[in-house]
Structures are given as structure tokens and as C-alpha cells.
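idk why but the lab printer keeps eating my pages so im just putting this in chat instead. protein + S-adenosyl-L-homocysteine:
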Amino acid sequence: MNVADSQRLASALERLGYSESAKVEESDVIVLNTCMVRQSAEDKALGRLSSLKPLKEKNPNLVLGLMGCMVGFRGQADIRKKLPYVDVFAPPSDAKPIIDYLIEKQTTEAINDFQPPKGFRWESGTLVLPKNQRKRAVSANIPIVYGCSHACAYCIIPYKRGAERSRDPQEIIEHINSLTEQNVKEVVLLGQIVDRYGLDMEEYPTLAGLLREIDKNEGLKRIRFLTSHPNWITDELLDVVRELPKVMRHIEVPAQAGNDEVLRNMRRGYTDAEYRKLIERIRDRIPGVSIGTDIIVGFPGETDAQFQDTVNQLRDLRLDVVHLARYSPRTGTLSERTMPDDVPDEVKWERFRTIEALQETIATEKHAAMLGATVEVLFEEKKKHRWQGRTENMDLVFVESDLDLRGKLLPVKIEWTGPWSLIGSLAADPLVN
Ligand code: SAH
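predcted complex ->
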């Protein structure tokens, strides 16, 4: 979500005449987009911010902006006082304060003397970069649901991103159309509970309906969506994933824990048995599907036996991807206010490593079964002589090739497999594609 927010800000800045600088020290505008989902993310943002402070002291003309969850949707009074050297603050998913600030600054600095950089042109008072010059990534993140109204006990997101708001379907489709005109091949539809798309509004399509509409875009090769909450996955949605070839057979649906009491304390709204049933239903309805989960270890009060239930769930379900986190108390959340953070750090780490090792074994075995198979890969970028891309199921694949494979969807024969990636070679002439 933050990557999507940053990309949107970057395009807005480009429309104002700014371009990406090679070094932070050479920038006229620096905006830090911040996350607070865990303490480590917050520490990182604060550390980075203090490292930028000397630049601001050296160059008072530098515009320093802070965006995202550290600002929050509610108000900025507190943070303004705490960070007086930051010029402008913007809430998550809303770059307007930054853009307004820069327009005002440009106007007062009489930009009429300013020479437009190469390729730019003036358009009603602002500089515009021609569309086709903007280099787009192969895969674009598209927020379709802003905010969240679920309030899991541990989670700060509803407090920082505000209540759930679905985005207008027509606007989403037009956004995607403009991206595919710029050669984007894959869209990833985003929401904290993406499978609730439309449910907060009257007369909006469901996520399944929206996927059907997006599927009509001819330039698009792949459509993904994340993250789903277990309670909102409908059969209609699963059928669309099975039926539409562009919609990838991969579902991110976090369990968070495998013990019923922990799940209740987390306010997740389902039991271990219900989660297991859901996984069975997804697998029954979508042959070849891959499934990702998020797990939090060391939630307040989690005993060894309760943790073992999470291990058992994963061992039984053998999901494809696990995003792991150690519980981090977030100020103002229900668990932070009412439950002591009583699982010692060493125990959190131990549980973290237990799940990590289990998942490494599962992923190694699952990938080994792909050896010699031919799979379709959408290539995204070249890193250190190797092209990298993903399979339908989100497996990371490397292929060595001198050809320009960017944005191409090609069959690849898998020749090596590991727990976290695969290596293969092109199984067909890419010029034919
Ligand atoms: N809305 C999505 C994603 C939320 S943030 C969802 O509910 O699945 C991504 C992940 O961060 C969550 O799934 C959760 O596993 C983790 N997370 C959120 N708050 C956390 C906290 N306080 N401590 C540790 N992990 C947390």
C-alpha cells in the first residue's frame, strides 16, 4: 500500500516538473513515506528522518515532507511540534498537502524564469512530462479499498488510515486503462480487506464483479489482489479466480494464529477449524491455487501449547507462502491497552525461527516437485545478469538471457529449485510472443 502511495506521489511530482534524482543529497524535495505496523518500521522511519536533518540545515530551500501512518489521517498538530524541521505533512494515500505546498512554493518563486527540462512542456501553468516518457514498472499496485474498519486487537492501521472506503469502480478502470497504455502488464489490487471491496457502499460491484470488468482490458496480462480476510471470501470470488485466465490463482489470506483463544483475543472473527475449512474450500474450487498467510508469533498471553497449534495448522495445511512477524505492541490498539506484552523477546524469536524452518522445508518440497516442469513467467526486471519474474503462483524465477524480456509472459523450463526461488531457461522463442 505504501509503495502504491509513493508511486502516486511520484507521478504527481512529475506532473509538477520534478524528476527523480540520483542521490538524496542532490534532491530539492524529499518525502519520507512511513509505516507504523511494527516498532521496527517506526524506528527505521525516525532514524532516516534524523539522518536527513543535517541536509535541511545545510540547505534551507530543501523541502522535507513526511507522509503516511506516522502522520495519520486525524491531524498533524502533535507531529508538527515534534518535528519542526519538516516542512509538510501528508496522511496515508493522500499526497495533496505536498502537492499544494509545492505549487504554492513554485508560484511564489516566480517559476517563469525556469527552463523546462528536456522532454517537458508547459500545460496550463504546470510542467508536464509526456506520458510515454514515464518509465512504468511491469507490475502496478492499485489501491481499491482505503483504510480499514475491522480493528484486529494488535493492528494500528485503522487508527492511522481511517475507516474503510472503497474506490469508485469507474475510476479504478480508467486508472488501469491509463497504466496499460503505458505498458503496464500486471495490476495488483490492494486493500487491507480487499475481499470486502464494495461492501461499504451502495450499488458497488463486489470484488468478483470488479475483476470481471478489469479482465476486459486487452493490454493487461495478469490481475492479482491482496489481502483477503478469511470471513469475506465468497464462492463467487473463487469462481472468478478459477474462470478468468488473467486473474492469478494465488490468494493471500492471513490466519495470524492457529489457536482459538489467541484468535479470539486478536479479534479475528474465526476459529482454526473455520480457517482450515476455508483453505479446503479454496483448494476445491481452484485447482492449482497457491495460498499465502501472515502469522504473528508471541501475541500477549500466547503459551507454548497455543503456539504449537499454529505450528500444527501450518504443518497440516502446507501453505505456499508465510509472512512472519513477532508481535509488536502499537500505541492505542486494544491489545496494547489491555494486554501486557508478556512473551519474552527470546521466546518470540524462537517461535519465529520454528515457523521459518518449518516453512523452509514445506517450500523446498513444493518447489522440488516443479523440477523439469514448464511454467509461465511474467518478466519484470534484470538484476545482475539475470532476468527475474514470477509464476502465476508468485514463485520467483530467474532466467539468464541477453534478450529484452521486460514485460514478456513466457514459458520457462525449471532447472533448479530452492526454498525461496527457482532457476530456469526459456522454453520458447520470445520473439514469437
Ligand atoms: N490488512 C491486512 C494486512 C495488515 S498489515 C491483514 O489484515 O491481513 C500486515 C501484517 O502485519 C498483518 O497481517 C500482521 O500479520 C502483521 N501485523 C500487524 N500488526 C502487527 C503488530 N502489532 N505486531 C506484529 N505484526 C503485526
